[in-house]
Amino acid sequence: MAQIGLLLTLVVCVLLHNGVSSAVEEKNEEGFCSRQLNNNQNITVVAAPGPIGPKGDIGPKGPAGTPGEAGVRGAPGKLGPVGPRGERGDKGERGPAGEKGAPGTSPPAPPVVAFSVARTAGISRTSSTTVLTYNVILSNEGAAYNEGTGKFVATVGGVYFFTFTGMTTNPTNSNYYLRLMKNGGKMVGLHEANGPQPQYQSGSNSAILRLLPRDEVWIELDKSGRTLYSSGNKYLTFSGFLIHAD
User: Fold this and answer.
1) What is the separation of C-alpha 102 from the centre of its chain, rounded to a whole number of angstroms?
2) Architecture of domain 114-245 in this structure
3) Reduced to 3 states, what is the DSSP secondary structure of residue 16?
4) What 3 state SS string does 105-161 have?
5) Which of 53, 91, 176, 232 has a CA-to-CA distance to 130 between 20 and 30 Å?
6) What pLDDT score was predicted for residue 7?
7) Is the pTM above the cut of 0.85?
Protein backbone atom coordinates (compact mmCIF):
# COMPACT_ATOMS: atom_id res chain seq x y z
CA MET A 1 0.00 0.00 0.00
CA ALA A 2 2.87 2.40 0.82
CA GLN A 3 4.38 1.84 -2.63
CA ILE A 4 1.02 2.54 -4.43
CA GLY A 5 0.57 5.79 -2.41
CA LEU A 6 4.02 6.95 -3.36
CA LEU A 7 3.42 6.24 -7.04
CA LEU A 8 0.12 8.21 -7.05
CA THR A 9 1.89 11.13 -5.41
CA LEU A 10 4.52 11.26 -8.13
CA VAL A 11 1.88 11.12 -10.93
CA VAL A 12 -0.15 13.95 -9.46
CA CYS A 13 2.94 16.11 -9.01
CA VAL A 14 3.87 15.53 -12.71
CA LEU A 15 0.34 16.35 -13.94
CA LEU A 16 0.33 19.54 -11.95
CA HIS A 17 3.64 20.50 -13.38
CA ASN A 18 2.63 19.85 -17.00
CA GLY A 19 -1.07 20.79 -16.95
CA VAL A 20 -1.15 24.31 -15.52
CA SER A 21 1.35 26.85 -16.85
CA SER A 22 0.15 29.74 -14.72
CA ALA A 23 0.60 27.95 -11.41
CA VAL A 24 3.58 28.45 -8.97
CA GLU A 25 5.35 25.28 -7.87
CA GLU A 26 7.05 24.98 -4.48
CA LYS A 27 8.82 22.28 -2.61
CA ASN A 28 8.92 22.69 1.09
CA GLU A 29 11.42 21.35 3.70
CA GLU A 30 9.35 18.22 4.33
CA GLY A 31 9.64 17.18 0.62
CA PHE A 32 6.08 18.20 -0.42
CA CYS A 33 5.41 19.24 -3.99
CA SER A 34 3.04 22.24 -3.94
CA ARG A 35 1.42 24.19 -6.79
CA GLN A 36 -0.75 27.26 -6.38
CA LEU A 37 -3.41 27.76 -9.13
CA ASN A 38 -4.71 31.04 -10.52
CA ASN A 39 -7.99 30.67 -8.77
CA ASN A 40 -6.06 30.65 -5.40
CA GLN A 41 -6.67 26.98 -4.82
CA ASN A 42 -3.72 25.08 -3.26
CA ILE A 43 -3.08 21.47 -3.97
CA THR A 44 -0.28 19.83 -1.97
CA VAL A 45 1.15 16.56 -3.11
CA VAL A 46 3.47 14.50 -0.92
CA ALA A 47 6.56 13.26 -2.79
CA ALA A 48 9.68 11.25 -1.79
CA PRO A 49 12.78 13.27 -0.70
CA GLY A 50 15.51 13.75 -3.25
CA PRO A 51 19.05 12.40 -3.00
CA ILE A 52 21.39 13.70 -0.25
CA GLY A 53 23.37 16.69 -1.44
CA PRO A 54 27.12 17.15 -1.09
CA LYS A 55 28.56 18.09 2.33
CA GLY A 56 28.86 21.83 2.76
CA ASP A 57 31.97 23.74 3.83
CA ILE A 58 32.86 24.06 7.53
CA GLY A 59 31.34 27.18 8.96
CA PRO A 60 33.29 29.85 10.89
CA LYS A 61 34.46 29.09 14.42
CA GLY A 62 31.99 30.27 17.00
CA PRO A 63 32.89 32.55 19.94
CA ALA A 64 34.60 31.04 23.01
CA GLY A 65 32.23 29.94 25.70
CA THR A 66 32.19 31.20 29.28
CA PRO A 67 34.59 29.19 31.54
CA GLY A 68 32.82 26.90 33.91
CA GLU A 69 33.20 26.92 37.72
CA ALA A 70 36.23 25.11 39.23
CA GLY A 71 35.51 21.63 40.42
CA VAL A 72 35.93 20.39 43.98
CA ARG A 73 39.60 19.71 44.88
CA GLY A 74 40.30 16.01 45.07
CA ALA A 75 41.81 14.24 48.08
CA PRO A 76 45.66 14.17 48.14
CA GLY A 77 47.25 11.03 46.80
CA LYS A 78 49.39 8.66 48.82
CA LEU A 79 53.08 9.45 49.31
CA GLY A 80 55.16 7.63 46.76
CA PRO A 81 58.34 5.65 47.51
CA VAL A 82 61.62 7.50 48.16
CA GLY A 83 63.55 7.98 44.97
CA PRO A 84 67.19 6.99 44.51
CA ARG A 85 69.86 9.26 45.99
CA GLY A 86 71.15 11.79 43.50
CA GLU A 87 74.75 12.39 42.64
CA ARG A 88 76.80 14.59 44.92
CA GLY A 89 76.88 18.17 43.78
CA ASP A 90 79.95 20.26 43.15
CA LYS A 91 81.68 21.89 46.09
CA GLY A 92 80.47 25.43 46.57
CA GLU A 93 82.63 28.47 46.85
CA ARG A 94 84.01 29.39 50.24
CA GLY A 95 81.90 31.96 52.00
CA PRO A 96 83.19 35.20 53.48
CA ALA A 97 84.86 35.19 56.89
CA GLY A 98 82.55 35.84 59.80
CA GLU A 99 82.76 38.79 62.12
CA LYS A 100 85.29 38.64 64.90
CA GLY A 101 83.71 37.52 68.14
CA ALA A 102 83.82 39.42 71.38
CA PRO A 103 86.87 38.73 73.55
CA GLY A 104 86.30 35.93 76.02
CA THR A 105 86.92 36.03 79.73
CA SER A 106 90.22 34.42 80.66
CA PRO A 107 90.25 32.17 83.71
CA PRO A 108 92.16 33.56 86.68
CA ALA A 109 95.86 32.77 86.68
CA PRO A 110 96.80 30.01 89.13
CA PRO A 111 98.70 31.19 92.21
CA VAL A 112 102.48 30.90 92.19
CA VAL A 113 103.96 29.43 95.35
CA ALA A 114 107.63 28.41 95.27
CA PHE A 115 110.69 28.77 97.47
CA SER A 116 114.32 27.70 97.54
CA VAL A 117 116.65 28.34 100.53
CA ALA A 118 120.19 27.34 101.55
CA ARG A 119 122.36 27.20 104.69
CA THR A 120 126.03 28.26 104.69
CA ALA A 121 126.95 27.15 108.25
CA GLY A 122 127.33 23.57 109.47
CA ILE A 123 125.98 22.07 112.73
CA SER A 124 128.27 20.14 115.10
CA ARG A 125 127.21 17.66 117.77
CA THR A 126 123.62 18.68 118.43
CA SER A 127 122.23 18.19 121.92
CA SER A 128 118.61 17.60 120.85
CA THR A 129 116.31 17.40 117.84
CA THR A 130 116.71 20.62 115.85
CA VAL A 131 114.61 22.36 113.21
CA LEU A 132 116.97 23.51 110.45
CA THR A 133 116.88 27.16 109.49
CA TYR A 134 118.34 28.53 106.25
CA ASN A 135 119.97 31.93 106.02
CA VAL A 136 120.08 32.34 102.21
CA ILE A 137 116.76 32.98 100.45
CA LEU A 138 117.18 32.06 96.78
CA SER A 139 113.47 32.56 96.04
CA ASN A 140 110.26 32.86 98.03
CA GLU A 141 107.33 33.38 95.62
CA GLY A 142 104.15 33.78 97.62
CA ALA A 143 106.13 34.47 100.84
CA ALA A 144 105.16 31.09 102.31
CA TYR A 145 108.62 30.27 103.75
CA ASN A 146 109.40 31.77 107.15
CA GLU A 147 113.15 32.46 107.47
CA GLY A 148 112.94 32.92 111.26
CA THR A 149 111.31 29.54 112.03
CA GLY A 150 112.65 27.59 109.03
CA LYS A 151 109.10 26.37 108.25
CA PHE A 152 107.02 26.53 105.09
CA VAL A 153 103.38 27.50 105.81
CA ALA A 154 100.93 26.78 102.98
CA THR A 155 98.89 29.79 101.92
CA VAL A 156 97.04 27.81 99.20
CA GLY A 157 95.68 24.29 99.47
CA GLY A 158 96.88 21.84 96.81
CA VAL A 159 99.60 19.43 95.76
CA TYR A 160 103.23 20.41 96.51
CA PHE A 161 106.70 19.09 95.73
CA PHE A 162 109.54 19.29 98.32
CA THR A 163 113.22 18.33 98.25
CA PHE A 164 116.16 18.74 100.69
CA THR A 165 119.87 17.85 100.99
CA GLY A 166 122.43 16.91 103.69
CA MET A 167 126.21 16.49 103.95
CA THR A 168 128.57 14.79 106.46
CA THR A 169 131.74 16.40 107.87
CA ASN A 170 135.24 15.16 107.10
CA PRO A 171 136.12 13.60 110.50
CA THR A 172 135.53 9.88 110.93
CA ASN A 173 132.41 8.54 112.61
CA SER A 174 130.33 11.66 111.86
CA ASN A 175 126.71 11.15 110.79
CA TYR A 176 123.37 12.83 110.37
CA TYR A 177 119.70 11.88 110.18
CA LEU A 178 117.39 14.42 108.49
CA ARG A 179 113.59 14.19 108.21
CA LEU A 180 110.97 16.02 106.12
CA MET A 181 108.16 16.87 108.55
CA LYS A 182 104.51 17.83 107.98
CA ASN A 183 102.56 19.18 110.96
CA GLY A 184 104.81 17.15 113.31
CA GLY A 185 104.54 13.91 111.28
CA LYS A 186 107.56 12.21 109.64
CA MET A 187 107.22 12.11 105.83
CA VAL A 188 110.63 10.92 104.45
CA GLY A 189 114.16 10.69 105.89
CA LEU A 190 117.83 11.00 104.85
CA HIS A 191 120.72 9.32 106.72
CA GLU A 192 124.47 9.15 106.11
CA ALA A 193 127.47 8.17 108.26
CA ASN A 194 131.26 8.52 107.81
CA GLY A 195 133.29 5.34 108.09
CA PRO A 196 136.98 4.77 108.93
CA GLN A 197 138.00 6.67 105.80
CA PRO A 198 137.30 10.41 106.36
CA GLN A 199 135.34 11.99 103.49
CA TYR A 200 132.49 14.39 102.75
CA GLN A 201 129.26 12.62 101.74
CA SER A 202 126.18 14.35 100.32
CA GLY A 203 122.65 13.05 99.79
CA SER A 204 119.09 14.21 99.03
CA ASN A 205 115.47 13.10 99.24
CA SER A 206 112.10 14.35 97.92
CA ALA A 207 108.32 14.00 98.45
CA ILE A 208 105.02 15.15 96.97
CA LEU A 209 102.47 16.17 99.59
CA ARG A 210 98.89 17.41 99.61
CA LEU A 211 98.52 20.40 101.91
CA LEU A 212 95.66 22.42 103.29
CA PRO A 213 95.99 26.13 103.99
CA ARG A 214 98.15 26.75 107.11
CA ASP A 215 99.74 23.28 107.00
CA GLU A 216 103.46 23.45 107.97
CA VAL A 217 106.45 21.64 106.39
CA TRP A 218 110.07 21.76 107.65
CA ILE A 219 113.39 19.86 107.85
CA GLU A 220 114.41 18.34 111.18
CA LEU A 221 117.83 17.06 112.36
CA ASP A 222 117.17 14.06 114.64
CA LYS A 223 118.48 13.54 118.19
CA SER A 224 121.75 14.56 119.74
CA GLY A 225 125.27 14.07 118.51
CA ARG A 226 124.43 14.67 114.81
CA THR A 227 126.72 16.72 112.57
CA LEU A 228 126.11 18.52 109.27
CA TYR A 229 128.60 20.29 107.04
CA SER A 230 128.10 23.35 104.84
CA SER A 231 129.98 26.44 103.68
CA GLY A 232 129.65 29.35 101.31
CA ASN A 233 129.02 26.74 98.60
CA LYS A 234 125.58 26.12 100.19
CA TYR A 235 125.55 22.31 100.50
CA LEU A 236 122.45 22.27 102.73
CA THR A 237 119.26 23.24 100.82
CA PHE A 238 115.49 23.05 101.15
CA SER A 239 113.05 23.78 98.27
CA GLY A 240 109.38 23.38 97.39
CA PHE A 241 106.66 24.58 95.01
CA LEU A 242 102.93 24.27 94.31
CA ILE A 243 102.12 21.75 91.56
CA HIS A 244 98.34 22.22 91.46
CA ALA A 245 96.06 24.37 93.57
CA ASP A 246 92.75 23.02 94.87
Assistant:
1) 20
2) Sandwich (2.60)
3) helix
4) CCCCCCCCCEEEEEECCCECCCCCCEECCCCEEEEEECCCEECCCCEEECCCCEEEE
5) 232
6) 44
7) no
